[in-house]
Design goal:
Layout lengths: L1 H32 L14 E20 L4 E12 L8 E6 L9 E8 L6 E8 L2 H46 L4 H21 L3 H27 L8 H9 L6 H34 L5 H30 L1 H7 L6 H6 L1 H32 L9 H17 L1
Antiparallel strand pairs: 1-2, 1-4, 2-3, 4-5
Amino acid sequence: MWKTFAVYSKIIVMRYLKYLLLSLVTLFILSVVFSPLTIKAQEALPDKTEIVKARVVDVQDNGTAIIPGLNINNKSQTIDALVLEGNQEGETVTFSNDYIQLKKGDIFYLNQTITAVDNREFYSVEDTYRLPVIYFFAILFIVLVLLVGGLQGMRGLVSLAGSFILIIYVLLPGILHGYPPVLVSIGVSSLIIILGSYITHGFNKTTSSAVLGMIVTVIITGFMAYKAVHVGQFSGYGTEEATYLNLNSRGTIDLLGILIGGIMIGLLGILYDVAIGQAISVEELHHIAPHIPRVTIFKRAMRMGREHIGALVNTLAIAYVGASLPLLLLFSTPPVNISMIMNREIFATEIIRALIGSIGLVLAVPIVTLLSVYILMPKIKKNIPKEELQKEKIALEHFEHKH
């Protein structure tokens, strides 16, 4: 009777799991969007600043100028620019530019500052106009995903869009409204996992086992990240953006919490690959040999997972190094003290980020595999010939010895 109850309980849980998860998603989003908490508005700066698009009409001269106090030669030019939007639309302004060197016809963002004391106007180049390049490669990416991936690629794009919507309209407002960043990050990470997985791979047992494994991994990773940043006495000021954020919010935002949340959000992309891959491996192995017991399928799937771990951990670490390459070069100039460089918060943050992320990937393999074996595989019958089981055992031992 107990076995019958357990079987029916498992069927009911799997049947209504998706509805439970979707209900949790809805409640979480509503709690953030309709939260009565608001962040205090920042007081206006004394100087009036407007950033608008402009086009270079003419470059009067190009030369070099010495940066005061640094004795470094820097390129400088005087340009005439036509303002394309804003209060001065249609006007031409002339100013000296020692930032990004432009040429005739270039479109850029112009920074106009009017001092509050004497209403003097200053102009400078804020940044070049890069959106056409971004749009081109974004469209190329979408077209290639649809051509190569077909329907599954389209589902992946929808999942990607949903992830960005959750980050922009749930994660960021939740942190700004004063919610604990760690809890918000865990919640949003779980929502991204749930929605992204079911949209991309459909509502089935395989997806559900991967989703449960990813959520468990995110919770464990979040706890480890929390302990790491507190035991390591991180301040959260490892980047220039964090400093500006703290100033703009007047110290009301938990920067340590944001650091922890960033570690977990950064893990999700590769975690998807690991979890779905392991769940599908278990499913396919079981379909090919339904007579094989759970423990054997677990060992075979773990063999695949180990190969995956070796590649993904290396990928994750190299990706973090690539993102921090300018910083590495900056602090690698003589005199070099490796231990001191590693101890700097700006470097230690990236090291911890890579290590915690890699630990999460490693843990995801056995967690997802174990859950998948339990959810996707029924207990095999006991009347399987011993010869078949012995043959499978010998093959497995030979396979593991060979590799």
